[in-house]
Amino acid sequence: MLDQVKQLEEEALAALEAVEHSEALSEWNRRYLSKKGTLTQMLHSVGQLSKEDRPAFGQAANKVKVALEAAYEARAEALRRSEMTRELESGAVDVTLPGRPVGPGHLHITTQTLRQIYAIFAEMGFQVYESPDVETDEMNFGLLNMPPHHPARDMWDTFWISDQVLLRTHTSPGQIRVMRERHPDPIRVILPGKCYRYEQITARSEHQFYQVEGLAVGHGIRMTDLIGTLTEFARRLYGPERRIRIRSSYFPFTEPSIEADMDCILCRGEGCRVCRHSGWLEICGAGMVHPVVLQNGGYNPEEWSGFAFGLGVERPAMLKYDIDDIRLFYGNDLRFLRQF
Length: 340
Ligand code: PHE
Known about the structure:
The protein is an alpha+beta fold and 340 residues long. It is built from eleven helices and ten strands.
């Protein structure tokens, strides 16, 4: 019996030596150490021995059990290591291979257009001033001479955040913010930023778009200053031959209010698809700052006057590059964006 135990130990250890992977290891464990394994069977058969033989046999068998268990653990650990090494080696990264090139990005077409606009106005002495996208009803409407229920509010469909808070529908509320911060000094600023309107999205209108507001407040500022500024702007952006046309218009926060057009850059006024055969392209709404708005900003309208305008940003880019759908600006399609 003792010989058998000894023999089993040798056999099991030799078999373990030959085990090359974890499946074979489990198989080995089942064969020798599990409940149905050879060694366990042998331990169970202790009852068949005579009383005198039992202790020696039990001791020997237990010793072998402990030895096999230890050998099993050691083998399992060694296999784990070699399998891990094999896996790492097979999936190894060849650090000497050249990398995939990452192309340089570039500025979004809107950002490029904005920067052109900043540069032109900077040369005319306008500073860039930022104001928030999320505004109060009072800033967006009330202080711009549109009290609650004023019918002119219908010109701007709005995304409301709460009763009194909304996404600004235009950059004009920034006028109040600059005036309140700068008074009693003269002002010459542009206020670029995103505006939002609750509108049906079409090729010509988005629910988000950029505007650049312009504001000049000083002594003796007149309509001719406004027209001169807009003419100069159009000429610097679109070419020195540009002509400007002024139409009368209405905004609650300017008096008088105007709309400025320039001759179509494609047909030079002859009439074409881009200008819808009118020869003219609308560039902005503008006017002389309304006395009530000056007052709301902290300036005495008896002493101060000013002009304001609100330029679109996507529209000029659309004209310049002949883009026929405003939705492309926010579509994140690289095939479109890479062209500019
Ligand atoms: N805020 C006006 C709009 O969004 C444009 C505007 C700005 C008109 C400044 C006059 C003066 O339509």
